[in-house]
Q: What sequence folds into this?
């Protein structure tokens, strides 16, 4: 078998997107390079994977910075880190069979070699493969643990979620409805707002580009805000802080409005509202809940099957070389649902 | 008896400090006026109180603003709100005897009439009366609940406390030592730093006026910061945020550096450190723990008696008319320990 692999795979080339410079502000194409190399041959215990789908996430911007964070920065010259759905195309590891699909963090490349560590098998029969990068993957789990563990919603409470039509936000809002909350989204265009209200069942959605967010929140949250799931940071966080209730919870998931800032970020000048309202602003990272992923995915898969939870993926069929322009769609607010690159 | 009261008390005058304007920035003497009026006569169920000590607290600055908060603002023309230790000098209420001392919120005035609601008897035999405004009063309770409930210290962790020599900070640091933490204070002069290290047993104290706080924290907190008890806000909060550990807790007690700001306050531009470190910034108000005051005071009184906890009050013998200049000592960093005005 090993001989056959070598024969075939040595003729195939892997295409990789590598981080070459640390971006200043918005990442530029000159910050990346593309390399081609012959496919490696799996040794005992290893498998060769063909990437089908690559996850695009706001967090990637942070991984490009040379800063202390929850994961080390991507090294210069390294393949850009990314969540992936891959197919096993050769296996010298008895735990993986050729033809199986796995979720992993194999990066922005067409093929990868793995010893199997950190891979999770996924079934294309139960859900479409891109869903395993979204609602049944890291973004769905982020919504699940951030809302349920940090937000701790109670029936009758009011939940506001920004980035409402994004991969995390759309799940947060639907989970809020399942928990019996009033759910108000904030998004950047009419189509997104219509989508979360009409398709996903949010109670209201504010288009922050045309509405005054403070005034609209007062209209749609007549009993104040008990939970604000923050995906965006910036002015919107500051505005929400003026309308939180006593004992409010703000799960801090991201701050996409600030990730490309070159100077100081927009800091929450109304943070003392946390004091007078005995409220909390709490960061979380989905990786801390890895021991509970299985149970959470099972629960969400059930809700999906029952129609209580809907999912949407926006799949861009551009291949590895389309990585950067596809990533930038996130920062330009051009995606609805989970943004995925098809290789 | 009623006749006798009237006869005596009608000859005595009450002196009151009233809020007349909402201060802009630092409160001015023109924001207050002093009024004199005849003492009222207690009716059935009422008691007449003579104020002995008035508590001076940073929170008073917030009460002067016309803003939604955890207590309604002091109304214009009303006696300025303040915590007090008073003596019962006439009683038509069987629950209070003449000569007893009570803690209450009787305001900046020499005498007050009360129906007894919200008063707590205190014993001058067990502790000096000003201690009931400090370590065995609201500031001690603030330290106790903020540190133990929000900060949740574990032995071996590193606790940083700002306003270290203030009424709250000095108790926070000592409670941290009792809980087995490494305790690093931040204060504004050498005397205060010497006091908390040499007298109270803090492991170190940073004089923020002469040392670079970031560098000094790196020296004194070699294992990072697990709990930051924030009394001051501003630049120091921002600096601490860059050195917090995973799962750090920041009980948000106050922001004295910002209370007199006339423009935007110094917002924590490093707040995203909460995200990558899964840390929380959580406000609290001591009034929420009123059902547990008794147990907490008993525990702290025991530590005081055992010498595990030390207390200090700075008593200014100025009377009612000295209210404002004494209050301003807090904002000028001129007090060590609990600042109290003697009437």
A:
């Amino acid at each position: 078998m090993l001989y056959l692999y070598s024969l075939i795979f040595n003729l195939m080339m892997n295409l990789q997107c590598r981080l070459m410079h640390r971006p200043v502000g918005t990442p530029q194409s000159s910050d990346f390079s593309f390399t081609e190399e012959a496919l490696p041959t799996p040794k005992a215990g290893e498998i060769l994977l063909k990437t089908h789908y690559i996850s695009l996430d706001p967090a990637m911007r942070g991984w490009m910075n040379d800063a202390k964070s929850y994961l080390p920065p991507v090294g210069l010259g390294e393949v850009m880190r990314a969540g992936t759905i891959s197919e096993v195309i050769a296996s010298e590891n008895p735990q993986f069979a050729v033809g199986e699909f796995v979720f992993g963090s194999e990066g922005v490349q067409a093929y990868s070699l793995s010893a199997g560590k950190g891979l999770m098998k996924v079934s294309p029969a139960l859900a479409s493969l891109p869903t395993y990068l979204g609602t049944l993957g890291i973004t769905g789990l982020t919504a699940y643990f951030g809302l349920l563990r940090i937000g701790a919603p109670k029936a009758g409470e009011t939940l506001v979620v920004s980035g409402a039509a994004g991969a995390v936000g759309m799940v947060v809002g639907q989970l809020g409805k399942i928990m019996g909350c009033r759910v108000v989204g904030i998004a950047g265009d009419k189509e997104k707002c219509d989508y979360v209200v009409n398709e996903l069942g949010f109670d209201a959605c504010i288009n922050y580009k045309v509405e005054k967010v403070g005034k609209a929140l007062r209209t749609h949250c007549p009993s104040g805000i008990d939970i604000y799931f923050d995906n965006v940071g910036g002015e919107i966080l500051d505005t929400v802080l003026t309308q939180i209730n006593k004992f409010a919870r703000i799960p801090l998931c991201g701050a996409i409005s600030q990730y490309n800032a070159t100077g100081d970020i927009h800091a929450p000048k109304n943070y003392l509202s946390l004091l007078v309202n005995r409220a909390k602003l709490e960061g979380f990272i989905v990786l801390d809940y890895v021991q509970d992923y299985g149970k959470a995915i099972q629960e969400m898969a059930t809700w999906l099957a029952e129609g209580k939870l809907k999912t949407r993926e926006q799949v861009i069929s551009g291949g590895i070389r389309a990585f950067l322009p596809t990533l930038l769609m996130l920062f330009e607010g051009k995606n609805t649902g989970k943004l995925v690159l098809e290789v």
